[in-house]
Design a protein that fits this description.
Elements lengths: L1 E7 L3 H14 L1 E7 L12 H17 L5 E11 L6 E11 L3 E6 L3 E2 L2 H8 L4 H4 L8 H4 L1 H6 L6 H17 L6 E2 H8 L7
Parallel strand pairs: 1-2, 1-3
Antiparallel strand pairs: 3-4, 4-5, 4-6, 5-7
Length: 192
């Protein structure tokens, strides 16, 4: 089945991840749509990370004639661990009926000193001392460096997108509205 997908990002890694996942199940055409969100460059906490992903999905869908809008956002969320946080990616898939499905990537602990920098707005790779521009962090990201090349940033993003798409693939018909997901996450309502 042919589908047109808009990804709310200017990050080519996220676009490639969405394209790889959707292309496994659909004849997918995927486009990058630059959007502005209300969260900073390094969201922290479930509410901010969720807000970023939800806004990206909704805004990319609103600004296009695509069938789906996808938003992916990463950041540390509160979770019992040595630092009190796990780094995760949240993906949201929104359709033309303003129904949202949500997925998470595998998540991992970060050193407390890295989380402390992220809390004040420093992005993960910079907080960890990994160069993004022309360096190892550019392609594989922190997770690629930390996992010794076992898992890349793109693969982590693919897992989050696949989990967000899973309810749709399984034929789930009772998807939550964007409004319901926003309210459950404590996010200011995002008009779909």
């Amino acid at each position: 089945m042919p589908v047109n997908v808009a990804v709310g990002t200017s990050n080519p890694i996220k676009v490639r991840a969405v394209e790889r996942v959707f292309s496994r199940f659909y004849d997918a055409s995927v486009a990058m749509v630059k959007v502005v969100t209300s969260v900073g460059s390094q969201p922290v906490g479930l509410t901010e990370v969720m807000a970023g992903a939800l806004e990206r999905a909704v805004k990319s869908l609103r600004s296009s004639s695509h069938d789906f809008g996808v938003g992916v956002e990463a950041g540390p969320i509160t979770f019992p661990s040595s630092s009190g946080y796990l780094e995760t990616q949240i993906a949201v898939v929104v359709d033309r009926e303003c129904r949202a499905s949500v997925g998470l990537s595998p998540s991992f602990e970060l050193d407390k000193r890295i989380v402390e920098l992220m809390i004040v707005g420093v992005e993960l790779e910079k907080a960890a001392g990994i160069s993004r521009i022309g360096g190892l962090g550019e392609g594989v990201g922190f997770v690629g460096v930390a996992s010794l090349g076992t898992l890349s940033r793109q693969e982590l993003t693919e897992q989050a997108v696949l989990m967000a798409l899973l309810p749709r693939l399984a034929g789930q018909t009772t998807l939550a509205s964007v409004r319901d997901v926003a309210e459950q996450a404590g996010v200011s309502f995002i008009d779909c």
